Amino acid sequence: MVAVTTPSRATRREICRKHGVDFGQEFIQGIPGQRESFWIGACRECEDEIRREQQAAEELAKQTEEITAETERRIAADSQFEERVRELAAADLAEAVGQVVASYCALHRPEWEEYHRDLEWNRIVREIQAERSAAIISRLEEEEE
């Protein structure tokens, strides 16, 4: 980098790190409280790349608008579109419900088995109590006779 200063202007030569091209820059003095000082001027190759990227972005935006318009036109012309959407959604919902049920069963089966184990335990206890009670009553009735 070589800087040259004259009473009215400061310039320098730079080499682009990306392209290895030599280019000139001019120093623009800042204005206190309004803007910073800066060097203006850039590598022609970098400027061309930026210009190509901007053009590509503009073309892509235009293409996106065209694609959106064509997509909306085709959907409007397709009488089966909404029905297909509903069918696909119903299939996905059915699959999701199956997954939710499987997940619920996997998580809660031990709880339900414990619950029903307790119910069966209590049912058997009541049976035994009823049998024993009946045996006591039968024995007491035999003793009274």
Strand content: 5-15%
**What's the arrangement of strands in the largest beta sheet?**
1-2-3-4
Beta strand count: 4
Average pLDDT score: 92
Number of helices: 2
**Tertiary shape:** elongated
Give start-end ranges of low-pLDDT stretches.
Answer: none
Radius of gyration (Å):
43 Å
Order of helices and strands: EEEEHH
Give a verbal description of the structure.
The protein is α+β, with helices and mostly antiparallel strands. It has a domain at 2-77. It is built from 2 helices and 4 strands; from the N terminus they run ββββαα. The protein has a 4-stranded antiparallel beta sheet with strand order 1-2-3-4, with no helix packed on it. A hairpin with a 6-residue loop joins strand 2 and strand 3. The longest helix is centred in the last third of the chain and has 64 residues, at 81-144. The protein is elongated. The N and C termini lie far apart (128 Å).
Give the topology.
Blueprint: E1 2-5, E2 10-15, E3 22-28, E4 38-40, H1 44-77, H2 81-144
Q: Can you tag this structure with a few keywords?
A:
145 residues, alpha+beta, 2 helices, 68% helix
Summarize this entry quickly.
The protein has two helices and four strands; from the N terminus they run ββββαα.
